[in-house]
Design goal:
single chain, alpha+beta, five-stranded mixed beta sheet, 1 helix, about 15% helix, globular, Acetolactate synthase, DUF6497
Amino acid sequence: MAALPARAGEPVAVPSGQTVEFHEVIRDAPGLGLAYRFRFIAPQLAEGLDFATAEGDMLHLCQSYALPKLPNLGPAPGRVVISLSDRVITFGEVVPDAIQYFEIYRPEGETCVWDDY
């Protein structure tokens, strides 16, 4: 299994072709039980990239990036959160002009199933 990147800024390919970089993983943040939040920076969101396109990229990031890394992180989570932000934002910080998209998935084998929490 792949290890987590050593540093933020690792480029990650997505179906839309937009520029996406790994930012961080947060484990056990309040609200979802055992969950891993994979956070990515996607500057093209600020240029008007629509949610439907970002949604496909987030599912891809869950299945091809996050799921293979889960065995290296510890206990299996009940949920995986994928977030895209147009800039680096401290987790939990409110930045009204930032563009951020989030999706929550349940890992089921090698598949991420959308979860309406």
